[in-house]
Amino acid sequence: MVRPYSDPENSPSARLAGAARSPAGLRLVVPIPRLTLSERRMLLALVDALVLNVGLLSALALRFDYAFSLHSLAASPRYPLLLTVLWFVWSSFFDCYDLPSSSDASQSVWRTFRASLAASLTYLAIPYLSPPFLVSRSTALTFVLLATASVPLWRLVYASVLAQPAFQRRVLIVGAGRSGSELARLLSATAAKGNPYAGSGYVAVGFVDDDPAKAGAMVEGLPVLGNRTALNPLVNDYRVDLIALAITHAFEVRPELLQGLLGLRERGYSLIPMTELYEQITGRVPVNHAGGSLHVVLPLQDSPTRRIFGWIKRLGDILFALAGLAVAGVLSPLVALANALTSPGPLFYRQQRVGRHGSPFTVVKFRSMVPNAEADSGAVWAADHDARITPVGRLLRRSRLDELPQCWNVLRGEMSLIGPRPERPEFVAELVRQVPYYQARHAVRPGITGWAQVRYRYGSSVDDARIKLEYDLYYVKHQGVYVELSILAKTAAVMLGRRGR
């Protein structure tokens, strides 16, 4: 929405500039470190590990002298190293590095308290992991108290200070069209408490656009500050850290604008496409703003690193499938008995799904619905509180145990442990017509769990399918060890918390 804009001196963007003025009218700029998303996560991780290990050292120093404690830990570096590893395992489980949650003081303190308590107790429970002189109950209790107090206290400082607007990167958006408006909505939302993207570390100051009709107007609550000729003064006046290019097509970039952007790049300013910034903040690929740029949606080259990762991933899939089939074999008689008592019918449920490169295959699951659930209705989306789900099936779905027989599909190479969830051919045919780039999710093997599954609720509409596609394509573009481990940790949390459906 565009509306006239006036009084730039008192605008939100002018106030966001945050630079004080002396009585003589001179601008006094106080440099404040403004961190990127990756820098924020790195800062959190480093200080978390440091604070936790300082707690260990302090607990030992209270019983022994400081020099002895420091020497003991330095002589056996495995003790602080293993404590750090345990912390990262539990912090991943409790999602302690989700930036929106880390920017909310109550959520951050509660999550890190549970993670530090779990890490410290696990550390003490395994003798090899912890120093032998922690056997004293008073020393062990002191360590647990320090761990569960120090990390949440540091996170409270982060949420109260470093997550505030003064420390967020300031973004100038080039282009106030559809893509620019979408980015403005996203960046405005990042400042709203309770928004899923709050605390991303970015704040928009306004637009640059050459359309005379938009000059001095408000677009999505942000002012159009000027045209391309105002780029240089604007980045100085508003202390811009990042210039987001919300220009869908290359022919929209006029030579004068290109020259101005190149000049800013030479001066050290960071430039980023709107689609890339959108990905960083949301963990999704904005398919509606990709235009005809296929590289926005998919990696266009198969690099040696991706090939090696693919081999390692396949080996891990095989090992997981063998272990999963063993567990499924143990559970099968129990599930069969429970189904026989509550909803007689077959143990397994088989259904056609679309796999890699669009090839159909038959997926195998523990039956969780009444027999012939779609005999009258045909293929329909699953719904909340679906009456077709049996009591045993609801328990299986909440714990995700109904997925275990799919280990057979993984072993056959039709699926992977991690990847986009395979959809039914009927739904795929409909979604390909309505959702841009939907077929791109078939570039990799479908998975039992995936980025979309741990980041978004169950989908029951075309709009849900589009959002889940954006998550799936993010996984396809960025799959690697870190993303895989993150998905596994979140999946474990979902299973133990019985948050499936």
Structure, described:
- The chain has 501 residues and is α/β, with parallel strands linked by helices.
- The protein folds into 3 domains: 144 residues, NAD(P)-binding Rossmann-like Domain (Rossmann fold, 3-Layer(aba) Sandwich); 126 residues, no CATH class; 183 residues, no CATH class.
- 51% of the residues lie in helices and 11% in strands.
- The protein contains 19 helices and 13 strands.
- The strands form 4 sheets. It has a 7-stranded mixed β-sheet, with helices on both faces. A two-stranded antiparallel ribbon has the order 2-3.
- Helix 6 runs antiparallel to helix 7.
- The longest helix is centred in the middle third of the chain and has 39 residues.
- The two termini are 38 Å apart.
- The N terminus is likely disordered.
Task: For the structure shown, list the relevant keywords.
501 residues; alpha/beta; Rossmann fold; 3 domains; 7-stranded mixed β-sheet; two-stranded antiparallel ribbon; 51% helix; 11% strand; disordered N terminus
Question: What's the helix and strand layout?
Answer:
Elements: E1 2-4, H1 12-16, E2 20-21, E3 27-28, H2 37-63, H3 66-75, H4 78-93, H5 99-102, H6 105-125, H7 137-162, E4 169-174, H8 178-189, E5 202-208, E6 217-219, E7 222-226, H9 231-237, E8 242-245, H10 255-266, E9 270-273, H11 274-282, H12 294-297, H13 304-342, E10 348-354, E11 360-366, H14 391-399, H15 407-411, E12 416-418, H16 425-434, E13 447-449, H17 451-455, H18 462-478, H19 481-496
